[in-house]
Amino acid sequence: MGRAFEFRKNRKMKRWSAMAKAFTRIGKDIVMAVKEGGPNPESNSRLRAVIQNAKAVNMPKDNVERAIKKATDKDTANYKEVLFEGYAPHGIAILIETATDNNNRTVANIRSYFNKCNGTMGTQGSVEFMFDHTCNFRIPSEGIDIEEMELEFIDFGAEEIFADEDGILIYAPFESFGAIQKELENRGIEILSSGFERIPQVTKQLTEAQVADVEKLLEKIEEDDDVQNVYHTMEEA
């Protein structure tokens, strides 16, 4: 198995565990998708993907419809996607994806977490190059031959396809999202969920005490309402 498989296995139970936080993230994703491409999922592929993800975490349909309606209100603030970079203690690179309606607040908060936990906030591009920006799709496994699918979807950018207990996962470079989404839909293959991840190219092993230092910073960052995802180069057990 490749890096995507190991990455997914290690992260599976660690992040996105709080349902309320998942709903908040998806609510912001809906606002950004509607502001960008309109409220009709038929003509807005980004919104279509977010609705699939809402179903995957059992977000009630009423919540989704309410979020779409709210996003069409011109008085609803749009969220801007901002990437933050830095180092935790012991040389661990951290990449933070945020969705914010107040960048000054978010910058101040993220900087304070680094300062309080002996980390260093970096400049743009200081650690982003250490991560591969990928897209992924989860589809049902019934009736799918993985080897055959791998051969066919290489042409659309797929790099790694594997199965777990929840279905089949397809990983590809970030830029291949649209092509793979379109091909899956053209073939009538249900997309259970989809998204983007940043996979570290190299990870670093730490002692138990050092891991605790890094986890302290990660927890503070992940509790922030503006934070969507956090990635790092620490090797996870």
From TrEMBL:
Residues 79-234 form the TACO1/YebC-like second and third domain. It holds the Pfam family TACO1_YebC_N. GO terms for molecular function: DNA binding. Residues 4-73 form the TACO1/YebC-like N-terminal domain. Gene3D superfamilies: 1.10.10.200, 3.30.70.980. Keywords: Cytoplasm, DNA-binding, Transcription, Transcription regulation. It is found in: Cytoplasm. Belongs to the TACO1 family. This is Probable transcriptional regulatory protein ACFPVY_05240. It comes from Flavobacterium qiangtangense.
